[in-house]
Specification:
By secondary structure, the protein is of the alpha+beta class. It is built from 3 helices and 10 strands. The longest helix has 13 residues. The radius of gyration is 19 Å and the shape is globular.
């Protein structure tokens, strides 16, 4: 019986590709992700690879009128510590427009609305085992409203100078990939990176 070369997304891979997905089995389903055990053929040998599926997310780099960046400080269980990040959140559904997610997360986490929300950058967070895709947006023309935090969120909003955030990155004190990518890209766009 001929094996089908199914990719994790259900796509058929190239027939003669050196890497083929032979089966894609759901091993675990949580609130925000699914973990798959994929049977792979690599250079003619079978092996198992883990794949973490995430429906996607959006994040926002909010810039105040005086040029400061609004950051959120929150506890991250995976790191067992508080982190300083840009506001972000998962899509409510796989087909939700990322800009709508970005708009919602900005207000929920920071208590600000943006008059101008621009798609700025796209990133995949951990390509070795996860398909998470994040759209990064730049927010300007901020107006204060109020936070709408989920029951399990504890988020503090802080305004930072770009130079101070760059220093945290250079000192390896800020490691969140979406935050580092957004800040570095923003600095480059201003000719400061």
């Amino acid at each position: 019986m001929e094996k089908k070369n199914l990719g994790p997304s259900g796509r058929i891979a190239e027939k003669d590709a050196p890497v083929k997905c032979l089966s894609h089995r759901l091993a675990y389903e949580g609130k925000i992700l699914k973990v798959y055990d994929d049977l792979m053929e690599v250079n003619g040998r079978e092996t198992h690879w883990d794949l973490v599926h995430h429906n996607g997310a959006a994040c926002v780099l909010p810039v105040t009128e005086d040029g400061k960046l609004l950051m959120v400080r929150q506890y991250r269980h995976a790191l067992s510590r508080y982190t300083l990040e840009i506001p972000a959140g998962k899509l409510d559904s796989p087909d939700e427009p990322m800009i709508e997610c970005a708009r919602r997360e900005l207000e929920e986490e920071t208590g600000y609305k943006a008059a101008e929300l621009t798609h700025f950058l796209d990133i995949n967070t951990t390509v070795a085992f996860c398909d998470e895709f994040i759209g990064v947006f730049l927010a300007k023309g901020l107006t204060k409203t109020h936070q709408h935090l989920d029951e399990d969120e504890d988020i503090n909003v802080e305004a930072w100078e770009l130079s101070d955030l760059l220093q945290l990155i250079y000192e390896r004190k800020m490691t969140d990939s979406k935050t580092v990518a957004a800040i570095m890209a923003y600095a480059v766009s201003l000719g400061k990176g």
